[in-house]
Amino acid sequence: MKNLRIAYKVTTMRKHSHSVADNIVDQQFNPEKANQIWVGDVKYLRTGQGWMYLAIVMGLYSRRIIGWSIHKRMTVDLVVRAIQMALNLRKPTKGLIFHSDRGSQYTSHRFQQQLNITILPLQ
C-alpha cells in the first residue's frame, strides 16, 4: 500500500477584535540602513517529533535572521519570544518598522503591547 500524504493546512486568520496596522512598507523591502525594517513570519516544519512551528524575525537590511523561536504550538508566546530575541540582539531605536502577515499571533493585544513597549513609534 502506498504511503498517503496528508496535507497540512495553516490559515492566517486574525481575530476581529484585534487591530491591524496600515501596510506602510508597501513592498519596499530594501531599507537604507540597519534596524529600519524587520519582518516576521511563522512556518511549520515536519520533524521526527511531529509538527513544530518556527517563528522568525529578519532584518531586511542585512537579510539575516535576528530572532527565532520554535514550539509545538503556534501561539502568541512563539512570536513574542522571537521578537524579544531580536530586540535583545539589535537594541533598535525609535522608528523601527515591523512587518508581518495579519495572523492572530501578530495582531494579538499581547504582541502589539510588546512592540509598543520596546519599539518607540516615530514622532
- Gyration radius, rounded: 16 Å
Number of helices: 3
Q: Please state roughly what percent of the residues sit in beta strands, choosing from under 5%, 5-15%, 15-25%, 25-35%, 35-45% or over 45%.
A: 25-35%
- Characterize the biggest β-sheet: 4 strands, mixed
Q: Which whole number gives the mean pLDDT?
A: 79
User: What percent of the residues sit in helical stretches (DSSP H or I)?
Assistant: 10-25%
Which CATH class of the domain at 38-118?
Alpha Beta
Structural class: alpha+beta
- CA-to-CA gap between the ends? 64 Å
Taken in chain order, the helices and strands follow as: EEEHEHH
**Order of strands in the sheet with the most strands?**
3-2-1-4
CATH architecture of the domain at 38-118: 2-Layer Sandwich
Principal-axis shape equals globular
What is the structure about, briefly put?
Helices cover 24% and strands 26% of the residues. The chain contains three helices and four strands. A four-stranded mixed beta sheet has the order 3-2-1-4.
Description:
It is a single chain. This protein has 123 residues and is an alpha+beta fold. The chain has a domain at 38-118: Ribonuclease H-like superfamily/Ribonuclease H (Nucleotidyltransferase, domain 5, 2-Layer Sandwich). Helices cover 24% and strands 26% of the residues. The protein contains three helices and four strands. It has helices spanning 76-90, 104-107, 109-118; strands at 37-47, 50-59, 64-71, 97-99. Strands 3-2-1-4 form a four-stranded mixed β-sheet. The longest helix has 15 residues, at 76-90. The model is unreliable at 6-12 (pLDDT under 50).
